[in-house]
Amino acid sequence: MNGGRAACRFRSVTRNAENSEPLVDAEIGEVPAAGPTRVSTAKGLVYLGACLVLIGLNLRTVFSSFSAVLPEITADAGLPGWAVVVLTTVPVTLLGVFAPLAPVLARRFGAERVLLGAMAILTAGLLLRPADVPGAGHLPALLAGTAACGAAIALCNVLLPGVVKRDFPHRLGLMGGLYTTAICASAALGAGFTYPVFRAAGQWTSALWFWALPAAVVLLLFLPLALRQPVVRHQFQTEGANVWRSAVAWQVTVFMVLQAMMSFSVFAWLAPVLRERGVDGGTAGLIVSVSIVLQMLGSLFAPGLAARFRDQRAINVVVALMTGGGFALSIFGPVELAWAWTGLLGLGQGSLTAVALTMIMLRTRDAHTAAHLSGMMQGVGYGLGSTGTLLVGQLHQATGGFAAAGILFLVVGALAAVFGYRAGRNRYVGG
């Protein structure tokens, strides 16, 4: 009977993957099973849905806002080259480091309280990030605040999709679409509005502090709802295939690593690339923002297209090459065509991220294995994926330009195509 329920739940998640980003339940396997968030009325359920979408709307501004004013921060705060590399790398690394901790905390405190705590940490990190430490300057606060933000986002990344899936089983297409659109919009807002805020305020610190405001608002909105939830301690039952011993799982995970290398490098470095090529800060932010909006289109249509085919080799190869090529053309191509290159990059990157996540569903036979593969992909994918931003920063520091990074992403895009081809074959984790 339990196996039948799990199979039904997995089928519903697979169907949802055809409409939006797949929602993998990080709480699956808990005993007793995690119950839905307790709300007393239909308005309460709408309020819960709004809170979850608003949480998603805060999960990427930390990346894109920093890169939007990176030249101003570097000049004013006197950041050494190594600090710039660390500040663009650490938050992505922490997405992988803290991802395995999220289900453990949820079993002890409940997913709602962990999300609340994560939003409190995110707000605190955003407030701390631009602070000036007497006698030490801005660097200590930038490092500590950025690290806190990365840890908080990691917890939300893991738990939020499962809560959306658990509490809105009959509205998965709608809520999944709103949630994933909110995350993409978060990056677009950070890229598009940070520089105008800087121009209006005259200080980069104000531009970064600005993003603590929406996080604090969501924290206050979600606070009463999360605290009303009962605390039930859960244990974890291991079911499903051993993903760590599966060649298919490793092919999917390496595909995820390579797409993460490119994805977070776009957030961290695309605006500085454009500005170094002579594009002014406001226009660069707008170009990056539009590119991210195009990512939304790619992430909306790519999963459904991928799920229609017996295997996904062709689509995986195409979107990987689009992403690597778009990034390289943004560096090497005529700057007059920057909108075209970044548009190609946006469509490719959004599609690449979506199909990499869709592989979780298409390469597994049951929900437990899908949850284990998701944990493996997030831990390894984000942990190693941060090497993309690290390498770009180090290459820029060593060469004084982004040409070497352009070559790097041609190579990364080609490797993503190779592993995407292998991950796209019609095979399953566990045989």
From TrEMBL:
It comes from Arthrobacter cupressi. Keywords: Membrane, Transmembrane, Transmembrane helix. The chain crosses the membrane at residues 45-70, 82-102, 114-131, 137-160, 172-195, 207-227, 248-271, 283-302, 314-332, 338-362, 374-395, 401-421. It comes from the Bacteria. This is MFS transporter, CP family, cyanate transporter. One of its GO terms (molecular function) is transmembrane transporter activity.
